[in-house]
Design goal:
Length: about 260
């Protein structure tokens, strides 16, 4: 942490209007900067900033295509530009921001045109890893899958949208790990990560309150994996992907004016 940030330790971050609405108040205690902790302080600041911005991008609070301004972020988080840049590098590695020549950095666009190929990839890989999990899972891996499902169920009950996004990811990756194919697991992780903002729209289509049958769908998958029923596991995985597909299409196709009568 640099001298300027250390001098402002304990100060709360005020609302800053810079391409978005900021309302965070983050009081923090800072150690006196020394040669041994200065680097560690910068690292923690970058991690905290990365996590905050990632949550705002995934929740669509920071909109696709929105400009990311380093100076405004440095003011917002009361730090130098160094931890801001570290956080932005990590966001870029996750595909959440893009740097454009001569235009600066923006939140990565949400390309609706690519949704069909995303669903195709999700369907194929999800069926493969779920089938493999039913065939190869151990008792310990089954326990972890059930544990992740309970965590997901809690976020659904709390209407915690970001928790649901991460909980859903963790549940499906636990299934992938049980399948025992590292390459498929890595591919599936990338697919799930790239689809997180689309999943945000999926949850929004339900008013951020998921119907109980959708959490039960996870339970059905677990039952198939527990019983080593590979055919049922693959079928349920396909149905799960298709439900996401159809609900997303309904959401982006909805209209609210077709039944309005306009008098001329």
């Amino acid at each position: 942490m640099d001298d300027r940030a250390g001098a402002r330790a304990g100060a709360s971050i005020q609302r800053v209007e810079a391409g978005g609405k900021w309302g965070a108040r983050m009081d923090k205690q800072v150690e006196a900067p020394t040669a041994s902790n200065e680097k560690r302080g910068r690292g923690y600041g970058a991690l905290m900033i990365f996590e905050k911005l990632r949550d705002e991008i995934l929740s669509l609070e920071l909109e696709p295509g929105q400009l990311i301004d380093e100076a405004s972020l440095a003011t917002r988080f009361d730090v130098s530009r160094s931890p801001i840049r570290e956080a932005l590098v990590r966001l870029g590695s996750e595909g959440l921001i893009k740097t454009l020549p001569n235009k600066g950095t923006i939140v990565a666009p949400l390309n609706i045109e690519e949704f069909p190929i995303f669903i195709d990839a999700l369907d194929l890989v999800q069926r493969a890893i779920t089938r493999l999990a039913a065939e190869n899972r151990t008792e310990e891996q089954l326990r972890i899958i059930k544990e992740k499902q309970e965590s997901f169920r809690k976020t659904v009950a709390a209407n915690d949208v970001l928790g649901m996004i991460e909980g859903n990811r963790d549940f499906h990756l636990a299934i992938a790990e049980a399948g025992g194919n590292r390459i498929l697991t890595d591919t599936y992780r990338r697919i799930l990560d790239e689809g997180r903002r689309s999943l945000r729209l999926y949850f929004r289509s339900y008013g951020d309150t998921l119907p109980s049958e959708l959490t039960h769908a996870h339970d059905d998958v677990i039952d198939a994996i527990e019983q080593h029923d590979v055919e049922a596991a693959e079928r349920l995985a396909r149905e799960h992907a298709e439900e996401v597909h159809q609900q997303f299409i309904r959401y982006i196709s909805r209209r609210s004016t077709q039944d309005i009568k306009v008098l001329y």
